[in-house]
């Protein structure tokens, strides 16, 4: 089974260290939780990254 396109883009951006491409994989209202800390929206996710 091939990797879904959004996941492939996320992994490629992460591996390339491309912060803008990484952030582009999230919607404006995305949420991310990391070890009990929550980040909402691209601005907070950018600070987390």
In brief:
The protein has 49 residues and is an alpha+beta fold.
What does this molecule look like?
The mean pLDDT is 95. The protein is globular. The relative contact order is 0.16. The chain contains three helices and two strands. With 49 residues, the chain is an alpha+beta fold. The chain has a two-stranded antiparallel sheet with strand order 1-2. It has helices spanning 5-16, 19-24, 41-48; strands at 31-34, 37-40. The longest helix has 12 residues, at 5-16. The termini are far apart. It has a single domain, classed as Roll (Nuclear Transport Factor 2, Chain: A), CATH 3.10.450.50.
Task: Sum up the structure in keywords.
single chain, alpha+beta, Nuclear Transport Factor 2, Chain: A, two-stranded antiparallel sheet, 3 helices, about 55% helix
């Amino acid at each position: 089974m091939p990797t879904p396109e959004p996941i492939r883009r996320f992994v490629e951006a992460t591996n390339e260290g491309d912060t803008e491409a990484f952030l582009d994989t999230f919607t404006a209202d995305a949420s991310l939780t990391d070890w009990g800390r929550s980040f909402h929206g691209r601005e907070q996710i950018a600070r987390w990254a």
